[in-house]
Structure formats: C-alpha cells, structure tokens
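User: Could you walk me through two proteins back to back? I'd like the raw sequence and the structure tokens for each, with a short line separating them so I can tell where one ends and the next begins.

Assistant: Of course. Protein one, sequence then structure:
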Amino acid sequence: MSTLSPHLVKRCCCTGETPNMVRRSGWHASGSHAAGSHLSSSPLPGARTSGQRRFEAAFLDAAYRAMAGMRRRGCALRPTSVVSRVRPDSPALALQVHEAALDHLLADVLPVVVGGRLRGVPGLRVHPGRDHLDLRSPDGELRLLGVTRERWRRAVATGLPIRLAMSDALDPLESASPPVLPVDLMSGVLRRLPLWRGAAWLDGIVVDDVLELYWRGGPSSESIAAILAGSACGIPNSTALPYSFRNAVRGVALSAAQHALALAASVEPEWAWAEWQAATAPGPAVDERAVRPVRIRADVPDVWEQQEMRAALALRDISAVYLLLLHHGVTPDRIAALTGQPEEDVDRVLTGAKVESYDTLTDIAKGLGVPLGYMGLAHDEQAEPDVPCGCADLDERAKRDRFLAHAALVTIGSTAAAWGCRATSCRSARPV
C-alpha cells in the first residue's frame, strides 16, 4: 500500500480533490506533472494566460456577491460550501458547485444590463454540455461540473438573465475597460477556495492592489496567511498579512511580493497545515450568517450587493443610495413611502443633503430592506466574553495595525463598534 505524498495531501486540502483525481490528472508524487506536460511544476498549477487570470478574477468577484446575497437572504447553505471542489488540471478550470447554490451563483455571474450598467462577468457566454456547463469569454473559460442540460433548463426557468449569456455578439457595455483587479491574487484564491470550507462565510474586497479577505470561524488567519504565501501550494509571488477581530472574524491582506522576497526560499509551514486540519475537521454545520436575513421587497430591485451600492451604504451616503435606486426605476415617492420620510426630505437628500440621525438611518435601512450591518448600524453577531486588557504590553506599531485593520472592516460595512483592545473595560477603545 503506497503512502500519500505530503504535497499531494496539501493540494487536496486546497482544492477539495481526492488523491485519485489528482493522480489521474498526470500529477507525480514529486509534485510535477507527467513528462511532456506543459503545466507548471507546482503542486497546484496556476492559470496559463493573463486573459484566463482576468476571467477567473472576474468570476471570483461575482462569486463574492453571490455568497453575500445568500447570507442576506438567509440561505440555509453555508456560503463557503458554494464551491466544494476545484480541478485546476482540467483543460479548463473546473469547479464543483453545490446544487443548492447554483442558481444564486449563476444569477451574479451571467452578464446582464440593468439601468444602463453591466452586471456579471463581461463577455461570458454559456455552453451547456451533457454533464457540465461551460462558461466562456474572450479572455478565458471555466467549467461547472455536474450541471446537466436538464439542470440548466431548470435554472433558466427560475428567471435567470440569459439574453446576453446566449448571444453571439458582445453588448457595447461588455467592451468597456474592466475594473482594475489584482488578477493574479484573485485567480490564485479561486483555485484554492475550498481552503475556507470550515468558515461560516467569506467575503473579499479590493483596495488598490491589495486583496482583503474576511471570514468567520474556521481556520485561523495566521494559518491561512502562511499557506497562501509561504507553502508549496501557496499563491506564487505573494505576501499575506493576517488579522484577527472580534466575534471569531478573521482576515488576510494579500498583496504581490517584492521580487527579492519572491525568490527567497522558505520552510514549509507544517504548523499552519496542522492548524488548518484541526479547524476544518468534519463536523455538524453551524447555521451562522454575517447578517440577519431580510424580507426582499418585490418592488425594490435587489441591488444591495453591487459594488457602488455597498460603498455608498458603508459610507452612509444616502444621497448616492437614492440616486442609484432612481437609476434602477424606484421613484422618489416610492422611496418616501418605504422609508417614512416626507417627499420634500427625499428631494433634499437627492440634491445632496446629508442624513446623520441614527434613527432616520435605521428607518431608511429597514424600509428599503437593507441589512443594518451593511451600514454599520447594528450588531448582528453575539459578543464574546470580556478578556483582560493587554494594551500596556503593545507597542505603537501593533496599535496602528489594529486601527488600520478596523478601518478596512468599516470600509466593507462591518458592525464592529470599537477598535483597539478587546476588553470592554479598556480606556483605549474608542467608539466609531
């Protein structure tokens, strides 16, 4: 009976594959592929072209929106279970998507023009197969495994926007310049998405050239950072800075490594793999969500996951929120009826007036069906027991890192109310 190679075991942890699946792909115990193969010698190969990396980054961006929508709607399936397996050695990157999450994912991935704006992955076209669904664009392609033609027909019957996805021509909006994304990092995360299967939820935002990942529960931020940036199965030429927050929320800031650091040899972080295995051990699913589910209003478009809207909500820029709703066909009188504001107040907000009252902001969020956590208005998660104050032992750099990490969470609409020490009795914590 042969023993499993350590690299093989670690690759299976990252991708959710079985050892036999990896062996059938032509992978050898040394971590390389069969002779004559043009794939990378890394245990976990990356995308072959820059276009494929752009396509995978756009797909991951849409997948984040789908996972956030599942949390907001109160879906029983953990968002981190959306992709259970990644097959990086297939002719096209192949993903095994959970049956219960397929409709949610396709709704955010397929391109559609709404209010003069393009949502989804630009240029993506659908090609149903006998037992899979191919997603292709001018940049690259991706395959969803296990999606039969009958399953695709059932998904279409739910009202999926397929006009562009089944068209041969590109819409003019699809030819526009795409947003600047750290495509190498995002492609690497997509190919390792099962690493977070032990977490309750996962979210990601892009700040300049940094990809910030946040999740609750599951593997520690230190172990994920070590695996992504310091292991044989990590993302090449990357660095990772771990963060830890209240309520078991973890985070990692991924960025491109300097050339000198990328060439430096590193020792395999076996401790990180041990921690990951312990935190991801099979067990009963926990019904946790980042935000409480809200009732979807039939006459208000479901736009709360769009990047512009999330940014406006996080900043509590109600003028921008109302203008975006107008753009999607919601009239000022309907906004007034939903929020309980007089129509003249809505008109003033539309012309730039600020809304600063906590009660008014809360009424607006509840009236429109916006999760309070998206505007930082309420705690949706249970607090942890108080811990002893340790501020006296921290230097200024550690305090500064805590503040910057908190600022990043505020940017994505976190419900965290204080930064600094975790102890509620600490005088260094300041309300936001």
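----
Protein two, same layout:
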Amino acid sequence: MDDFSYVDKNTVQRLIDRYGVMPDDINCKIVRNNLVVQATIFFIFVCSLCYLFLYFAKIVKGSPLIIIFLLLIFCAVYFIYDCIRTRKQAKLRFKGELWLLKQLLEKEDIQRFYKDSGKSISQEFLCQGNVKDWKWSFDFTSCIRQIVIDSLIEKLNLNNCRAIELGCAGGYFLKTLISYGNIAYGIDLDRNCLQRIAKNKNLYLCQADVEKIPFGSNSFDAALFLEVLEHLPSPYSVIVEVGRILKPGGILVLTTPNLNCIPASYFLNPLKLFVQFLATWSNELCLPKPLINSWRKQRFFHTAFSRNEIKNLLKNDFKVKKWTTYGMGGGLVGMLLRLSPSVRKLFKQLNDMEQKSGQGKDYAQLRKKLIHIESKCGKWLGRMNIFLQKIPLIRLMGTNHIIVLEKK
C-alpha cells in the first residue's frame, strides 16, 4: 500500500509517475457490479453445495453429479473473474483520482474542513468537471454513529471532566458531553455551525484549525475526533497536535472510514469476502485508497485508512484501549429498502427536483420523508451495531473505525 501520511505535490507526483497516470485516466469508466447476476450465481452456488451435501449424506439418490460439478466450476470461475475485475476497477478509479488530486494541489486549494456547510460545502470542492449526476441514496452512518458514540461515552464514564470535540459541526456530541456534567469545548472552521450551537451552557467554542489547536499542552481530559482525519492532508501531524493538548492518561475517541470494510455485495462472492478479511492484516491485499468523494455534483478530498495505517499513526503517542467498527448492515438495509416501489418513487422525485434545482415546499416534504426513514432505520441499526461489536471478526467489518485511545 502506498504511503499517504502526508499528501503533498511531491507525494502525488511520485505516485503518478509510478503508475503511469495520464490525463485521460480521469475519463475511465467504472462499471458497476450487476447485483442481480451476482445474486443469481451465488444462489446457484449455494444450491449446488446443498445438493452435494444431501447426495453424499445419502438423503437424495440418482442425480446427475456431472451437472452439479459443472455448475460449481462455473460459479468458481465467475467468482475469480469478479474478484479480479473489482481490483482492476479499483486501480482505474485510483489513477483517475490521483490526477484529480494533482489538479487540486496545483491550485493550492486543498481544504482541511468544510468551511461553510450551509453553502453546499463549496469551500472544499476541487473539480467540477467529469462528475456524474449526483443522486440521492440512503446514509445511515450519521444515525448509527450517534447511537454508538452516545453508548460509548456512557461506558467510558466521561463525567465532570474537561473535554473537547475537534470538528464539532452541529454540536450533537458536545450536548452529550454536557449532559454528563463535563465542561465542553468545540472547534471547527465553519463559523455558521458554531453560531448555531453557541447558546448552550457549559460550552466554549472556537473557530480554529485542528493543525494549530489554540489551547495549551495537557489542557484536556478527553477529546472526540469524529470523521475528520480523512479530510486532512497531514494526518500524522494532526495526531501529534491532538496528543499535545491531552493530559497523560487522557482519552481520545477517534472515528474515520475503514479501508478494510466489507460491503454487503461481497457476501455474494466468497472469494472477495475471504480476500477482504485477509486485507485487514495485510496491506498488500488492500484495495487502493479512495482519494476523492462526491457530494451534489462536486468532488473533494476524502480518504480512508486501513487498520495497519492507523496503528502506525498512533503508535508513538497513544495506546489502544478498544478497537472496533460501526456502520455494519447499512448497505444491506439500503438495498432492501430500494426494493420498495414507494422508496424508489421517493428517490426518483428527489433526483428530478435536484436536476431542476427545485427547493420548494414539495421538495422539503420529500426530504422530510427520507430523513424519517433514515432516522428510524438508523436507530435500529445503531443498536444492532452495538451488539455486533461484541463478536470477533464481525466487529472489524464496519464502514468506519471507532477507536478508544489513551495518551501515553
């Protein structure tokens, strides 16, 4: 796996030269997997295995075994082909995103946080060309994170201490910290977000960058660093800065996207599932890192971290107290909900209004329906994730790392 501990022009140019990236790589077409085909072949594979088991158990007799073996060979060949194609597509995506990142760095316009989320987070966009039409989809991650982090704060007994949230955005977790009797501090680059939450008592806010936190050394007993690290071009230096403001023995709760997560579609291919499990412990098997994310037809810098990468970032300043993931089951629930005609109709209406820039009363009502579905399913998924975090291996499959650390 390539080193992205510091993203600068030299790092990106070195990778561009290594992989022979060309401007045309931006236009590479990423073919999406056909879930119907995958599900059909997986069904044939399972049925064939079940039939073989019944045959050798002498429950069924007189069957054409040659046909069953041919079906199994066909499924195995497809699984190998699908695994190779997925990795090839990931490399093509990586090369295109490298070139986009090169353009961003040449403009010297890379942003570390959303500076103004109220204006479509326009400050972090890097390139408006070659972007597919943005479409609505379910996002259960925020709801799951709220349930999981609330439960974690309660278990950690973060009471009556001095705590800070780095990149506090809407301030949801600051309110949670205050509810346990803590003196809470929040920093963010978005002034509008800070103004919206400034009325809470026992809460102190500051507009600042996490690379230069305006507090003295050993100032805090605990810190929340939630879904911020993936936006930063120099994650290691930020981890050092966070360690500086924490007292010895202070607690850091860190969340960030998991490069080793297992999408729901991987369960339809045993080979891809097995390789992705192994990638948790082997960097050589990891897929190339994502470098760019999209939001409302825009692209911005956004990455993910493998388990080994984060270990290397943290080893000098922190020791791990707990390591698990969250976000498990969200993709599967989203796919199942999309089978509903009413949900498909809701998405179609929202997408049509987005294309026409419609932001009227009807649009607001449709968004309210979508948020209600996400909230209801997200709360259930959050409780399910808390249970799944107790199961070995399964707890490493989620879309996002959640790590509890203690300063050395």
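Confidence is low (pLDDT under 50) at residues 112-134.

Let me know if you want the two compared in more detail.
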